[in-house]
Every structure is written in structure tokens, then in C-alpha cells.
What we know:
Blueprint (H helix, E strand, L loop, with lengths): L1 H4 L2 H57 L9 H9 L7 E5 L5 E3 L16 H5 L4 E7 L2 E9 L6 E7 L14 H38 L14 H69 L3 H29 L2 H5 L2 H15 L3 E7 L7 H20 L5 E9 L2 E8 L10 H6 L4 H11 L3 E6 L5 E7 L5 H9 L1
Parallel strand pairs: 6-7
Antiparallel strand pairs: 1-2, 1-5, 3-4, 4-5, 7-8, 8-10, 9-10
Amino acid sequence: MRRWFHSLQAQLFLWAVLPVTFALLALAFTGVYAHQQAMRDFVAERDLAMARLAARIIEDGLAHGTIAPDGSRLATWLPSLVGEPIDRVTVIVVDGTGRTLFHPDPEQVGVDFSNQPGVAESQGGQEGFIIAEGTQGPLLVAFTPVRGTDWTVLVEEPVEGLIGPILRFSGLAPIVALAAGLLSLLVLTFGWTTIVRPLQALARAAEQVSWGDDSAIARPVGGVQEVQDLHRALAEMVARIRGYEAGMRDYLGAVSRGQEEERARLARELHDGPVQALIALGQQAEMARRLLERGESVEAAALLEALRQQGMETVDELRRLISALRPAYLEDLGFLPALESLVREADQRSEARVRLIHEGIVRRCDPEVELAAYRIAQEALTNALQHAHAQNITIRVRCDEEGITLTVEDDGVGFTLPPRPDILTRQGHFGLVGMQERATRLGGRLLIDTAPGRGTRVVVHFPPHPPTSERSLTEAA
């Protein structure tokens, strides 16, 4: 129960439902109060009509002599003429001196009522009704003068008798409103301390993280369970981002080192291969020239033929080096012929069986996309041959209007794919990270499905053209 009360669902319920409930209560009390006022007005008009009726009866009685000028015989005639008495309603007749001429209680006849509410107003010629404080609570007093005399007719009725028990609760409206206000203030305070303030703290922590202060997200923020879950998710996301950044730094460092190593290797191969061959060609050309000067044309012709063969071998070596840097088939003939050449060479130089299957009509894509797909196929094929020790490797490719979909599947040993790429970079495995980066940079999707003992399946899909920003960067370069 406590956990639910501290949840965002409970807070939203308190913030949303309670104000509506209080509004409905306020509306209900307003209706009760209005009904009470209407009831009072109705009863007041009824009592005033009764007072007028009694005054008219007294006027007629005085005119016909049935009522004496001193008020005698009022107790005989007035009750029967007014009709059946109404419960808790009292009819009183007061003379000009304030002395009661008629009262339902015989003991009250002759008592001084000059200070009774409504007497002074009636003797001044007014009629109406007022609510005054009586000995047993508030009274509704209707009054009217008797014409031709200085008498006054009063009709009294306790206010508590005007309304029903339920309507009497309207007197508790201020207390209920105060309690509702305090409860609303408590809910708002609780919501501020458990939702608003923790979210503000979380926002400040996220801002500090954006400036490189990762320790800010580690400080607790409190709040409802959902805010704490959000804080925990943000902390995990920051940890993942920092791990990814560390992995990317390692990857970029490995790429830089790989480029330098590749340059060094290329320099060695050029120096030990084509450069030495060209030096030897130059020396043999000098020997051929001397043979021709001495007239030894047969020996010179044989040496020139050897020079031609060595020149062709040097050209092949240079083409091999150039193809390793950037496949010529890819630019000249397209992605599929370059992939066929890659598969053919891998099948010839290894004991594994490497197959290529292409589906549908082949369409050309953006050169940057084709190069990225080729490099991923090259990396996946190398991993299958060197690390997975696969015996059968199948490459499937489809190039259509939706882009390039490439699948490299092998029956090798497989491996356990870590949950985050930075773990691979820490272990020094940059091939998979490089494939992921190539795919992401050009708007593609890479999927790696593997497990120990059941081989590896690499699937990548590229759109036919890279995103606009990537294309603009490529064109600018």
C-alpha cells in the first residue's frame, strides 16, 4: 500500500481526482445552501401571508364588534379564523404599548413584548420578516400592522424547523472547505516533494552530465517510484554512453594504428617488391643496351623478353596491392562483380567452401553504400575463415530499389555476443564494431546472430543512398 501511494499513478489520482471531488463537494454545498435559502424565503412568505390573514381577521372582528377594542375575545375568535395551527408556528398579537393581547400560551398574555423583533418595525407602519436570535435559537419572525389600530401581528417559527436534517449540514461548509483546502495543500506539498522537485533535480543532473560531470547522475533524487526508475534508467544510459564513447575511442585508436600499420606494410611491400623489381629492370635494361652496342642482338633479345616478363609480374603485383587498398571491380563493374571476385579468391585460397547467392534483379546503389557493404562482407568473410574455422560459408545478397541486403552465414564455432560494443573494444575485437559503425553511419541496420557451437549469421541492410548529412559530407570531402 505504501509503495502504491508513492507511485506516480497515486500522485496523478490525488492531483486529478481530489480537486474534482472537492469541486463537486463545493457545488453540492452551494446547491444545498441555495435550496436552504429558497426554503427560508418560501416559509417567510408563508408566515407573512399568515400574519396578514390574522391582521385582516382582527380588522374585520373590530369592525363588526366580535373583537373588543381592548383585545378581549381574541383567544376565542382568532384560532378558529386562522385555521389549523402549523407545527412550531406561533401567532402573537401585540398592542401599541408592547403588551401581548393574544398568545397561544395563556401565561404569556399581558407580557411586555415591546422589545420583540418586528414590533418596532410594525408599529412604524412596515411589514415583512426578519431572522432574530430567540431564547432557544434563531427565529423567523413575520410581522404586519393591523390597520386602524396600533396593534401588531407577529408570526414566529424556529429557523431549525425550516430545513431537513441533511440540509442542516450546510452549516459545516466552512469546516469542510477548510479541511478540503488543507488536504489539497497537503497533496500539493507531497506532490511537489515527490514529483516536481525530484524531476527538477534529475533535470539538473542531466544538464551537468551533458557538461561531462557524470557524478551528478549518481546522486539520489528520491521521489515516487517512477521517478526513481527514470533516474536509474538515466544512470544506466549514461554508463552505456560512456562505455560506448570509451569503445569508440579504442576503436578510433585501433583504426589509426591499423592505418599506420597498413601504410608501413604497404611501404615494405612496395620497397621489397615493385621497387626492387624496377631497380632490377633498370639494371637489366642497361645490360641489354650494352649487348646491343656490342652487336650481340640474340642475347639482347632474350634479355628484353625476360625484362617484359618481369614487367608483367610487377604490374600484377601492383594491381594486387591496389586491389587490397580499393577493389577495382567495385568502381568499374559494380558491387556484385566485386563481391564475386572476393568470394572466388576466398574459395581458391582456403579449404572452406564459399558460395555467393544473389536474388532478384541487380541494381546499382550509391558508391559509398556499395563500398560499406563490400567491406562488411570482406570483414565477415575474414572472421569466418580465420576465427570461426568455418567449412561452409554462404553469402546472400539482394540489390533492389530498397537498397542492399547482405547476409553472411557460416557453420563455424560461433561466439557469445556481448551486450554492449565497448566490451568488444576492451577485448581488442574491433571488426564487429567497425561493421556496426559502417552500417550506422550510412543509415543501415546490422544484425548479428550467433552462439557457441552453432555458427554465425551476419545480416546488414543499407538504403540505396546514405542520409542527406552523410552525402553532403562525402561530397564536401
